[in-house]
Design a protein that fits this description.
Helix content: over 70%
Largest sheet: none
CATH class of the largest domain: Mainly Alpha
Number of helices: 9
CATH superfamily of the largest domain: Tetracycline Repressor, domain 2
Radius of gyration: 19 Å
Number of domains: 2
Number of strands: 0
Structural class: mainly alpha
Order of helices and strands: HHHHHHHHH
Strand content: under 5%
């Protein structure tokens, strides 16, 4: 089957995701990616100028997929901001239960601590977007209930998400990670004095 350049690029990135996420970015060489993808190394380098470029594209792809399911989980579909926030934590729980090794962005940041590298910048951009989305939802909730500082609530919820991913990585999806949605709800109840919007 002949693929277009765009299809080949996406195919390589799918293979890259499985290898980088499950085996580590630095532990996986470009030749391994090419072999698993069934393409020549020259083809890979024609689409990605370097391993750094491939890693950056991998992180960017995970970011796009993450934004997609978060936007879907929190869509303004008639639910209150309170219920949309909990809907996000339901989605996080489902995501973690589907084969989770932890947060791909935190793993990329651990392997690429230099802020000047594209992979690092892309991972930080992903985390920044999630925090901004939570702040947006908290601000909507604040319009209906006195929650104090929406940014502080967003940061508390962001920490719960981080904890879910870190716990799933260390202790499995049936450990403390199972408490993420419950903890988020307790935070929401506390900050709204138990008033549902």
């Amino acid at each position: 089957m002949t693929r277009t350049a765009a299809e080949t690029r996406e195919h390589i990135l799918r293979i890259t995701h499985d290898l980088f996420y499950w085996h580590g970015i630095r532990a996986t060489g470009v030749d391994k990616v090419a072999a698993e993808a069934g393409v020549a190394p020259t083809t890979l380098y024609r689409l990605f100028s370097s391993k750094d470029d491939l890693v950056a594209a991998y992180v960017d792809r995970v970011d796009r997929q993450t934004r997609e399911w978060i936007v879907q989980a929190t869509s303004a579909d008639g639910r209150s901001a309170y219920d949309r926030i909990l809907g996000l934590f339901d989605a996080v729980a489902r995501h973690v239960e589907q084969d989770c090794r932890g947060c791909a962005f935190m793993m990329a940041l651990a392997e690429f601590p230099d802020p000047g590298l594209p992979a690092h910048r892309n991972a930080v951009a992903a985390k920044t977007w999630v925090r901004a989305k939570l702040t947006e939802l908290a601000a909507e909730l604040s319009a209906d209930a006195d929650i104090g500082d929406p940014a502080a609530l967003a940061d508390q919820l962001a920490l719960v998400i981080e904890g879910v991913h870190a716990s799933a990585q260390a202790l499995g999806v049936h450990g403390p990670a199972k408490q993420g949605r419950h903890l988020a709800e307790r935070i929401l109840v506390a900050c709204t004095a138990g008033v549902r919007t």
